[in-house]
UniProtKB/TrEMBL annotation:
The chain crosses the membrane at residues 367-389. PANTHER family: CITRATE SYNTHASE (PTHR42871:SF1). The keyword NAD does not apply. NCBIfam families: cit_synth_I, PRK05614.1. Gene3D superfamilies: 2.20.28.60, Citrate Synthase, domain 1, Cytochrome P450-Terp, domain 2. This is Citrate synthase. Pathway: Carbohydrate metabolism; tricarboxylic acid cycle; isocitrate from oxaloacetate: step 1/2.
Length: 432
């Protein structure tokens, strides 16, 4: 068998350079072009990084063709059945599932970091009441940097661990407070006796006026949503966190950049966009009209919740959440939920439609998470916030891996297509 290399020949001067092929433990091999520019005087161009691996990572593996998602080697389908979100947080951060003792200690530490600084709570008052909760989240998460000077020496692993605990513990509190601020209700403090998902729902829906019992079905569904959204390899927001963090900015600033990237409707904002789309469709009879628009290259309309850059098979998370959506609707007494009915019809039609089959556009995680969250009575403008709370462990685990590596600052190059050098007119103005 030929050597594990790739040879690139520049046909302009017949210069050939060999590049080593590197094999991971799963998935496609890569060829290492670290010295391409030095040896061949050429950059690569790959807008959107469709064929580019930006880093080595041990954390999450996706097989888009087979619809596989592994967190530290464990299939997400098994994790969602046998673990809760905090156990998955431990796994993503440390690389192994916790022992019983480690689990208890991890929970104890996270619990002790769940409150936010009272001054940070004051910050919300600077926002309009109708501010989108994601706008508040971007701001408040970034402001964490202003409160924790004792743990941002990122070269110190102990500081990195404290920052990880603070992000894991405080994101639900910050997110629930954004909802309360939007609703004009008082913030609720975390309750140490509740589980992570129960605590989040309690801070969202409880008021000081009386006891609020978190529905076990809702807590279970929220825990599943958090686990399924926890990490996803080098997606747009995670790549943003890694790049922002590579300048050695403090972790809270890097995570805040990730929150901003996740907000987009092509990424984490899709679950909110799915509900808006289902409401716009309004009835099963109107689905063909929207399918037609989605197929029209001149119409910018996309079927929100369909398609994925990597999954060209069913998103395994969507498979799990499809079942959860049915369970939650049954449990919440939704005999007939028009939105879910439209969603199921849309899924059925799209999966039979030649265009979607040919382009391998399957329902993704956002398609069903939007329906579940809606059935739980969560407003659509909180959907991406919940995605951000869930993904924050993935972001901090990936940031921690990047800081602990020898990658250094990320600094992509470009293909320059602008003006060649030219002189400024003596007047400093463009001549008529
Ligand atoms: C998330 O990266 C991640 O891992 C993200 C995520 C995570 O956990 O972090 O999984 C979370 O972001 C899920 C995706 C949520 N976004 C949406 O549901 C928005 C709707 N989907 C599309 O915008 C789109 O599918 C993307 C952005 C998700 C992917 O964009 P790509 O890579 O350009 O899509 P593709 O290569 O699969 O598209 C193939 C073709 C294209 O047509 P051509 O250019 O080949 O002619 O299908 C078309 C696209 O135009 N297409 C769609 C479509 N998605 C792609 N046509 C109609 N409706 C759609 N939803």
């Amino acid at each position: 068998m030929s050597k594990d290399t790739v040879t690139i020949r520049d046909n302009r001067n017949n210069r050939e350079v060999e590049f080593p092929i590197l094999h991971g433990s799963e998935g496609p091999a890569v060829f290492d072009i670290t010295h391409l520019y030095r040896d061949l005087g050429l950059f690569t161009l790959d807008p959107g990084f469709r064929s580019t691996a930006s880093c080595k990572s041990d954390i999450t593996f996706i097989d888009g063709e087979e619809g596989i998602l592994l967190y530290r080697g464990y299939p997400v389908e098994q994790l969602v059945d046998r673990c809760d979100h905090l156990e998955v947080c431990y796994l993503l951060l440390n690389g192994e599932l916790p022992t019983d003792a480690e689990n208890k200690e991890f929970r104890r530490i996270v619990t002790n970091h769940t409150m936010m600084h009272e001054q940070l709570a004051q910050m919300y008052r600077g926002f309009r009441r109708d501010a989108h909760p994601m706008a508040i989240l971007v701001g408040v998460v970034g402001a964490l940097s202003a409160f924790y000077h004792d743990s941002i020496d990122i070269r110190d692993p102990r500081h990195r661990l404290v920052s990880a605990f603070r992000i894991i513990a405080k994101m639900p509190t910050i997110a629930a407070a954004a909802y309360k601020y939007y609703m004009g209700q008082p913030f609720m403090y975390p309750k140490n006796e509740l589980t992570y998902a129960e605590n989040f729902l309690h801070m969202m829906f409880a008021t000081p006026c009386g006891e609020y019992k978190v529905s076990p079905v809702m807590a279970r569904a929220m825990d599943q949503i958090m686990i399924l959204h926890a990490d996803h390899e080098q997606n747009a927001s995670t790549s943003t966190v890694r790049l922002a963090g590579s300048s050695q900015a403090n972790p809270f600033a890097a995570i805040s950049a990730g929150v901003g990237s996740l907000w987009g409707p092509a990424h984490g904002g899709a679950n909110e966009a799915v509900l808006k789309m289902l409401r716009e469709i309004g009835s099963v009879e109107r689905i063909p009209e929207f399918i037609k628009r989605a197929k029209d290259p001149n119409d910018p309309f996309r079927l929100m919740g369909f398609g994925h850059r990597v999954y060209k098979n069913f998103d395994p998370r969507a498979q799990i959440l499809r079942k959860t959506a049915k369970e939650i609707l049954d449990a919440m007494g939704y005999v007939y939920d028009p939105l879910f009915h439209i969603a199921l019809e849309l899924e059925k039609i799209a999966l039979e439609d030649e265009y979607f089959v040919r382009k391998k556009l399957y329902p993704n995680v956002d398609f069903y998470s939007g329906v579940i969250l809606s059935a739980m009575g969560i407003p659509t403008n909180m959907f991406t916030v919940i995605f951000a709370v869930s993904r924050s462990i993935g972001w901090i685990a990936q940031w921690n891996e990047m800081i602990g590596s020898d990658e250094g600052i990320g600094r992509p190059r470009q293909l320059y297509t602008g003006h060649a050098r030219r002189d400024v007119p003596p007047s400093g103005l463009k001549e008529d």
